[in-house]
UniProtKB/TrEMBL annotation:
Protein name: AAA+ ATPase domain-containing protein
Keyword Transcription among UniProt keywords: no
Keywords from the named record: ATP-binding, Hydrolase, Nucleotide-binding
InterPro entries assigned to the protein according to its UniProt record, in alphabetical order: Nuc-triphosphatase_THEP1, P-loop_NTPase
PANTHER family to which the protein is assigned, alphabetical: CANCER-RELATED NUCLEOSIDE-TRIPHOSPHATASE (PTHR43146:SF1)
A GO molecular-function annotation: ATP binding
Gene3D superfamilies in UniProt: P-loop containing nucleotide triphosphate hydrolases
Length: 208
């Protein structure tokens, strides 16, 4: 759920995993206006930030109306109060995913790898190109894992809110229902303890 600290957890997981394996991906960070007031300012949007020890590139994912970072078409997708800036988001997310796809497709690539996506949610899935690459990545990781257990996808997704335990987002529900998926629910109370469990689950899957 929002505000539980899952992005912080994912960032810490990246730091742990990158000591042992190749890690690619991105996280989503809240954006708030810079204010000198001691009161916490209201959230105006989200940025995606590349997970890298060398390059912390970021791009706009979404902004509240009036806070857009570039001119947008009238038909720009909206999720709640936020306008999704597809071109900006795709400029970071798509090359990141393509790098991972290229690596997994390379039979000569050495060593295990992890792809971290924070998150696969309604805003990100406004991009058909992102959806297509995520589906291709999931299929490729499943194929590669059957052969060598050398690839793992770590993704944050919206929490299940429906009585049937589903999220109402077809791609996410499909991903969560796969037999080789391990689900962890991050809450405010368990976010510190669960880091080691997720880390160990990834390392076990990679046979490390």
């Amino acid at each position: 759920a929002s505000g539980t600290g899952k992005t912080t957890l994912v960032s810490r997981l990246f730091q742990l995993l990158s000591k042992h394996v190749s890690v690619t991906g991105f996280i989503t960070e809240e954006v708030r206006p810079t204010q000198t007031s001691s009161r916490r300012s209201s959230r105006i949007g989200f940025d995606v930030v590349l997970l890298s020890t060398l390059d912390e590139r970021r791009a706009t994912l979404a902004r509240c109306a009036g806070h857009e970072t570039t001119a947008l078409p009238a038909h720009a997708p909206r999720v709640g109060q936020y306008v999704v800036q597809l071109s900006s988001f795709e400029s970071l997310a798509l090359p990141c995913l393509q790098t991972t796809l290229n690596s997994l497709s390379d039979r000569n690539a050495s060593g295990p790898s992890v792809c971290i996506i924070d998150e696969i949610g309604k805003m990100e899935l406004c991009s058909p190109s992102f959806c297509a690459k995520i589906e291709k990545l999931i299929d490729l990781i499943s194929t590669v894992s059957k052969q060598s257990s050398r690839a793992v996808l770590v993704a944050t997704v919206p929490s299940a809110r429906r009585p049937d335990g589903r999220r109402g987002i077809p791609l996410v529900d499909s991903l969560c229902s796969r037999p080789n998926v391990c689900l962890f629910e991050v809450t405010f109370s368990n976010r510190d303890d669960i880091l080691q469990k997720v880390y160990q689950a990834v390392m076990d899957r990679l046979l490390l």
